[in-house]
Amino acid sequence: MKNISLYKTILPTPIYSFLRMIKRKWYAFVRRNGGKDWTDKIIMERDRISSEEHLSKITHKGDFVYSEKGFRVFNGHHNIFLGSNIYLVDSLLNAGDTVGKITIDDYVFFGTNVSILARAHNYNVFNLDRHQQITEKPIHIKEGAWIASGAIVLGGVTIGKHSVVGAGAVVASDVEDYAIVAGNPAKFIRFIEHK
Ligand SMILES: CC(C)(COP(=O)(O)OP(=O)(O)OC[C@H]1O[C@@H](n2cnc3c(N)ncnc32)[C@H](O)[C@@H]1OP(=O)(O)O)[C@@H](O)C(=O)NCCC(=O)NCCS
After folding, report:
1. 6-15, 24-33, 90-99, 102-111 — which is least confidently predicted?
2. What is the pLDDT of residues 8-28, one digit of tens each?
3. Is the pLDDT at 1 greater than 50, yes or no?
4. Where are the beta strands (DSSP E) in the chain?
5. Ligand 1 centroid – CA 183 distance (Å)
6. 180 in ligand 1 pocket by Cβ < 6 Å?
7. CB-based contacts of 132: which residues, under 8 Å, 6+ apart?
């Protein structure tokens, strides 16, 4: 504030007003672009784009794939492979850049607030190295599986066809076809009868 008063005193009014206008426009521009400075802008890029944009950036996908407000891809739009008739609701998909592929087959659907996490961090190193060293493993969710609300699926897991992952489960190992699993870590409850 002190500086502004000083400038107001020493600058001719038209120049001072012009500079104030430039400053206002700059702040408005930065706010529109999502951050206080360019670093924030890059970090917040994934939050700035809408769930529709996140879905449209996934190019490998079939027909009738739906998401809702809140759906986002933390990383790896290019490494997500979606079949048809899939309902992703407001989930978070975090795919790797190489082997950490996320594959979701036809008729899979989620409850709210599901996380599919194919990436993690190398915990054998510390501080910034841990921030930066990413590990990744593939996730495959097979045909017709229902992943209920609040479930978390970790890297390296295959979820069998027509299986059910209970609300709030943390899935750390494979789920068999037609199985119901629940809990943290997700444990087998029973098989679903089928012909
Ligand atoms: C997984 C689910 C479908 C199983 O339903 P169910 O067949 O009626 O299961 P049951 O009530 O027979 O429970 C069987 C056992 O699993 C346990 N269990 C069931 N769901 C569980 C869950 N989400 N987390 C932890 N344990 C669970 C029960 O406590 C019970 O344990 P017990 O045998 O020791 O008593 C259901 O519990 C569930 O999670 N529904 C999801 C609801 C939801 O997210 N809805 C939003 C729309 S997607």
Report:
1. 24-33
2. 788 888 998 899 889 888 877
3. no
4. 60-61, 65-66, 72-75, 80-82, 86-87, 92-94, 102-104, 109-110, 115-117, 119-121, 134-136, 139-141, 146-147, 152-154, 158-159, 164-165, 170-171, 179-182, 187-191
5. 9
6. yes
7. none
CB distance 160 to 144 below 8 Å? no
Rounded percentage of the chain residues whose pLDDT exceeds 90 = 75
- Ligand 1 neighbourhood includes 189 CB (under 6 angstroms): yes
Query: Can you tell me the distance from the alpha carbon of 94 to that of 54, in angstroms, rounded to the nearest whole number?
Result: 12
Helix (H) or strand (E) holding 133: none
What are the sequence ranges of the domains in the chain?
A: 8-57, 58-190
- E strand or H helix at 83: none
What CATH code would you report for 58-190? Answer: 2.160.10.10
Could you tell me the distance, in angstroms and rounded to a whole number, from the CA of residue 166 to the centre of ligand 1? 6
Side chain identity at residue 68, one-letter code:
E
Which of 86, 165, 189 has the most ligand 1 atoms within 8 A of CB, as the residue to mutate?
189
pTM confidence score: 0.83
Active site residue 131: no
C-alpha to C-alpha distance for 109 and 102, rounded to whole angstroms? 14
Tokens of residue 20, six digits: 């104030």
